[in-house]
Amino acid sequence: MKTRWMLPVFGFLALLGCGRSSPKEQSSVVDKLRSNHELKAAYIVYPPFVTKDPNTGALSGFFVDLMSQIADYGDFKVEYEEAKWGTMVAGLESNRYDLVVSGIFPTIPRSLSVAFAEPIMYVGLSGVVPKSDRAEWTPERLTTPGLRIAVVAGEVGHEYVQRALPKARVTVLDTADISRAAAEVAYGRADIALSESITCGEFAAQNPNVKTVFVDEPLEVFGTTFMLRRGDPDWRNFLNTAIEFLEASGSIRQLEAKYKTRPEMWRSRRQPWQ
């Protein structure tokens, strides 16, 4: 039988319930949860972090299960809305939802507009190339004139080419399907697709005509966590407290055992990349 370490009767929310007086503090998501017990959350289908049943629309996955446990302890319900990588920041800024649960990478450009909870795991920026390609892939090869690179708009591969490869020949796909960039390689329309290591590995496992590169030595490494609006320290502190609590109780390790089907998919925050 699973044993849960229970907080005092007021749960996580009670930890942040005292000492407010200013209007800015009164607008915290934490206050809304204490009053109406409902959270507006966005998701992007991103297995195994978020999976959507095509028949019922039911959501599952690492981050959905994690948020379900947090909501259980905090005594609130989660109302989900589907978003895209390219629109998730605007949805937060417009108060359409209060956080994105799909497992988002805190990057410097994104941090100019939004905030993040502390990292839950670490994921690398990798690539997918044709299996027939025998040449060595290095960061320098990405600067080869005429090289066709595919990325998904708003995803970390897109941010990387904008910053590191401004002269590259890039196809930018505006879609919520993060595997679409890798599909461009499978169709012969791109020489390499840049994306995070989980999607690259999953796509290569299902498509024998492609392979992964930059897996053991990623182009970049990102923490992965919840994304939220700036200017709400109570909400961020609440999420950080929840993450720490669920890690200490063993819940995060149990979710890793359930959803981490290959060791290279991500590194836990207990064992980040060196």
Any overview of this molecule?
The N terminus is likely disordered. The two termini are 37 Å apart. The chain is an alpha/beta fold and 274 residues long. Helix 7 links the parallel strand 8 and strand 9. The chain is built from 11 helices and 13 strands. The chain folds into 2 domains: 158 residues, D-Maltodextrin-Binding Protein, domain 2, CATH 3.40.190; 90 residues, Periplasmic binding protein-like II (D-Maltodextrin-Binding Protein, domain 2, 3-Layer(aba) Sandwich).
How many β-strand stretches? 13
Mean pLDDT: 89
Structural class: alpha/beta
What is the H/E order? HHHEEEHEHEHEEEHEHEHEEHHE
CATH topology of the largest domain: D-Maltodextrin-Binding Protein, domain 2
CATH fourth-tier homologous superfamily of the largest domain = Periplasmic binding protein-like II
> How many separate structural domains?
2
What's this entry about, in short?
With 274 residues, this protein is of the alpha/beta class. It has helices at 11-14, 23-26, 29-36, 62-74, 88-93, 108-111, 156-164, 180-186, 197-206, 233-248, 251-259, and strands at residues 38-43, 51-52, 59-60, 77-82, 99-104, 114-116, 121-130, 148-152, 169-173, 192-196, 210-213, 221-229, 267-268.
